[in-house]
Amino acid sequence: MSQHPMIGALNGKSLLHWFDFDCRDIQALLDLALAVKKERSEGLRPQRFTGKTLAMLFEKRSTRTRCAFETAFGEEGGHPVFLSTSDIQLGGKETIEDTARVLGRMFDGIQFRGFHQSTVETLAKYSGIPVFNGLTDDFHPTQALADVMTLYEAFGDLKGRSIAYVGDGRNNVATSLMIICAKLDIECRIIAPAELQPATSLVQRIVEFASVAPHISADTADVAGADAVYTDVWVSMGEKAQTQQRISILRTYQVNQQLMEKTGKP
Fold first, then answer.
1. Is residue 2's pLDDT more than 70?
2. Side by side, which strands form the sheet with 79-84?
């Protein structure tokens, strides 16, 4: 597999959110991902990460994120090391800065999945190695990358496409989708009740660079004409006390047959 000409420019770069990446960067990652996926389907295991190590820090439990990082790194010949909060002193007996410095001397990269965006940014600042955000309360960039990859596979192009996200519009998935879609000229529609819509400051930040600005609405009829419809859990990790309230607020925002018919597409 020949390397995409843009990939070299990303060497050593952390993925904390999509604000720091442009359209060419993201397209290069998508092309690389599709090439690697094709290799895997053909039974190829090139072992490009032989001798490399990845520290996987998990404050929040996960099935898909952990398995995706661990198997992908391992299949490439690397050695992923899973570390939960019961395994290391992350902001406990030692500061996050100290943990970052220690891991930076022993590993080639860090993956973090947890609560505060400030934690993953501190790890990136003090470790001296690439850090990958596997989810924080604010952003979920790897999920959004997989989502636009699905659109890319389904449609063969991305520019001018539209995706309607229906549900909790201020969670980390909705936020990351808005950013990455704006970078790729995809129309992102966030359809959510007023109390669960994204922060105005975030939307304004995206509008500053977007040629296709996010569309924010409380009307489910705005799924009309969308190329894809997306939803996420109504109650995120750490919000279980709000379960009944969320169900009440979001009941009319279910992605079901009735809503899909509003797209006007078969």
1. no
2. 79-84, 53-58, 109-113, 131-135
